[in-house]
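Late entry, written up from scratch paper. The run itself happened at the end of the previous shift, but nothing got recorded in the book at the time, so transcribing now.
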Amino acid sequence: MFFAKLHPLIVHFPVGLLVSGALFEIYGKLRKEEAVRVAGWFNVRLGFWCALPVMAVGFLGMLSLENTEKFKIFLGNHILFAFSTVAIFLIALLISRFAKGRWRGVYYVFLFLGLLSALATGFFGGELVHRFGVSTSQPPG
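Output as recorded:
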C-alpha cells in the first residue's frame, strides 16, 4: 500500500513539467520566442525522464490495490493514458533527436497529442483518488 499512497504524491511533478513544457514549446514556436521554446524543450525532457520512475511506482501501487471492481474502468483508462503519454512523448523526443526538416512539424503534433494524453491521464487519476478514495484514508465522494 506504500506505493499506492506514494504515487499520487509524486506524480504531479512530471505531469506539471510535461504539460508546461508542451505548452511553452508550442507557444514559443508559434510566437517565435526562443527563450520560451527552450524552456519548454527542457521541461518536456525532464518531465519525460521523471515520468518513468513515477510510472514504476504507480504500477507497484496498483499491485497492492484491493477491491478494484468498482473503479476498474477508471483504473484501466488511467493506465492506458499513462502508457500512451509516455509513448507519445518518447516518439516526440525521438523525432526531435533524429529527424530534420519536414519532420519538425510532426514533432509539434506529437507534443500536442502528448499534452492531451497527459491531461486525460490526470483526469482519470484524479477520479480514482477523489471519486473512489483510492490510496487515501478518506471515504469516497
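The chain has a mean pLDDT of 93.
(Scratch paper discarded after transcription.)
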